[in-house]
Amino acid sequence: MRSAERSLWWLAAAGAATSIILGVVALAWPDETLYVGAAIFGVWLLVHGFINLVQAVTATREDGASRALTAVIGILFVVAGVIALRNLVVSLIAIATLIGIAWLIGGITGLVNAFTGPYDGGARVVVALLGVITILGGLVVLLWPGPSLATIVWLTGIWLVVMGFMQLFLVFRHRPSS
């Protein structure tokens, strides 16, 4: 039992240290971090494109139209992945656009929920305010994608470092006895 407890402690300590290291890397090399993220996005598109193509070819229970649609989606993902990997700036713009659209839609949804959902009084105001802030954030990312992505990298780096140190504090506070 003690061995498992020590192993879990070391695993938690390693997770905290990893957060700190990744945060420092993001803060030290924000541009490179963006390009690595863009490359990962391109690879993700390729992988999911190939998965869709394999599903379209190997599916046995789906109708022809469904298989054709899956193949078309697969081809689009592969093409998008190749474009993203050939031009990482395009990939970064696509990522920023997706973030901006997601925040915009999320903010609109939050604003609608504030007035049509089960909220009353102070909760309604907080949900509405959160919706407005999210809409504004989405618009900022859509209008200024470059600076927005750089800010996101910086905030993520800071968050990882702070979170890692907090995790380390908790890990050392609950260190198993020898």
From TrEMBL:
Keywords: Membrane, Transmembrane, Transmembrane helix. The chain crosses the membrane at residues 7-29, 35-54, 66-85, 91-113, 125-146, 152-172. Pfam families: DUF308. The keyword Membrane applies. The keyword Transmembrane applies. It comes from the Bacteria. PANTHER family: PROTEIN HDED. This is DUF308 domain-containing protein.
